[in-house]
Amino acid sequence: MRRQSPACRRKTPSRAEKALGFVSFWQCSPNFSETYYQQNLTGVIDGVTRSDYPLLLKNFQEILTAQTAGYRFLIQHRLAGALVMAPRMRREDLDILKGVGIPLVLLYHQTPGKDFSWVDLNNREGGRMAMEHLLSLGHRKIGFIGGELELSSNARDRYGAYQEALKAAGIGEDPRWVRNGMFTLDYGKEIAEELLSLPVSDRPTALFCATDMIAFGALQTARKRGVKVPAELSIVGFDNYDQAAYHSPPLTTVHQPFYEMGRIAMELLESIVQDPKRDSQQVLIEPELVVRASTAAPPLPPSGPKTASFK
Q: Is the N-terminal amide bond of 230 cis, ω within 30° of 0?
């Protein structure tokens, strides 16, 4: 009888008969070269390669609901557990996940209470950092461009941080300067066009953009309209995508450690699969403000007409 090598004789745990899943839900096909997805996936893969589990990847061009193919995928496949990256999800749709019947960890979506384990950035703290930076520079006319409040806990937290910072500084929120819609480049371009079309005296002197993609759009619009950044308009993003450092000007932004978050989330999922009786865990990762050249003190107000003095 042929003897097996030590590697071949390695006994594989029975749990390896099932895979761990990394399932992402998007409104449209993700850009796989985008920092957000690429670094998360690298972290997830590194997290799972330290275990005995195979990994099953699946992307869906949809928001997670009980009627979607993504939900059927979670129900029908014999997964040991799944990491669900669904940053856009209605609150009522969270209930459908309770019936999936396998251990789950949510990535980039926070839920109240202890029903789910999740890993997310401390978005409220990141928003506070961005706003305190602008306020410390002397800005008082600060606009906000954010995402879908009804779908994204991240959008709600970043907007909430904006509101709280204004209130703490004794500044009223000006509805002319606030928009919540999409975390996209085109949305940033569109809303910046609206804001920069206002009379100069009515414009914000700074924009807190809830993602780098929104900020990149705002920067493009400012350049097209001849508005100088940061001399006439300061812009802060959120994410710290790789291209943020190479934009013109380089973007001040809040750093989100995508790789570490993917790895931590997958390791958390494995620990829950191994011990299904353990309590759910909620992990907040702390952000970091990265100051670059897109922010400066607000422009000085135009001086009034000079009058002659006579002696």
A: yes
Full residue range of the structural domain in which residue 117 is found: 15-122+257-287
Query: Residue 116, CB half-sphere, CA atoms under 13 Å: how many?
Result: 26
Among candidates 44, 79, 84, 45, which has minimal Cα distance to 68? 84
Question: What's the structural domain count of the chain?
Answer: 2
- Is residue 55 within 8 A of residue 20, CB to CB? The reply is yes
Domain containing residue 44: CATH number: 3.40.50.2300
Q: Are residues 54 and 112 in the same domain?
A: yes
Global pTM exceeds 0.90: no
Predicted confidence (pLDDT) per residue in 222-231, tens digit: 999 999 999 9
Number of H helices, E strands in the chain: 9, 12
pLDDT band (50, 70, 90) for residue 112: confident
The DSSP bridge pattern shows strands 178-180 and 142-146 to be parallel
